[in-house]
Amino acid sequence: MSKPAGGLPDPSAALSDPDLPLLVAVGRGDRDAARQLMARRLPRLLAIAQRLLSDPVEAEDIAQETFIRVWKAASRWRSGEAKVETWMSRIAINLCYDRLRRRRESLTDTLPERADDTPGPEAALSLGDAARQVHTAVASLPDRQRLALELCHFQEMTNIDAAEAMEISVEALESLLARGRRKLRAILTGQEDELLAGFGDDIPASEGMR
Amino acid sequence: MMDIDRFKAILEAHGADPARWPEGERAAAESFLRTDGRAKVAHDRAAELDALIAPAAITASPSDMLTARLLRAMPQPEFFGDWRRVAAAAALALVVGLGGGFASGALVPVSDDEAYYEIAFDGLDSDVQFDWEGGA
Questions:
Q1: Is the pTM of this model over 0.95?
Q2: Rounded distance between C-alpha atoms, residue B16 and residue B93, angstroms
Q3: B16 to chain A: which residues are within 8 Å by CB?
């Protein structure tokens, strides 16, 4: 399987992909196609980035960087096997991981304490108490549990597409989802003792990776 | 084969909505839910959690500024980056030029030299003719 820089998927392997004709048209400089692709995918990429970064401004940066990469790569569409949506999500996720890594390095340099996992300004500004409590609970999950929940539960991606976007196996994805949901149940129903049941820690980065 | 353990595992990972269940197991799981009493209890419990976390959905609306920035960032079509297109354009220009030249050439009755010669000596010739006749 040959891929150009950026890991483009193969159109022949994604004939049922509704985003594919739009991406090909974007590669020819079609601005209407670009608008349609943004209408379809930009809100979802923003949601992924907000879920991971808890910061709408940074989320816009991530979405912008993702689409700029898509524009640059669109005319070089070659071979691969992922859907356009999966490929774009993967770009955004990796950009978010880079930011989270830099944040942690920065915090390690300046503050030895644990990073604040509370949700960003969007929660404080626009949500009621109950919704804010749920946002806080979701934000307290480890990054990959949070991301798995965003992709599968809130964006309703298939388990196969979500696993591909996260570059993990379907089994590892299911494990992340189950542990995330158990932790949420414990937090939201006040059953904190369930936290001792062994799902508080994220799996090591190497585990479950393809 | 669907059993209660696998059904619970699906619920724990994907929640109570069959639309979120793995496609390959969805039909079997739905059938199991209809026929097994324990499945119904587990399903109700998963549905409660789904309802609890529903408010955490993020509805992100891209700003007009962001979409405008992204449209401006679109690269121009890479026409001149492809040598085959450049070669095709040059060949087309050559064909059109040559074809046009030959076509317009057929409409010109004489060469430039002949035209100049006629302009220069046409009147003189008639004058000479007139004088010559008059002289006769």
A1: no
A2: 66
A3: none
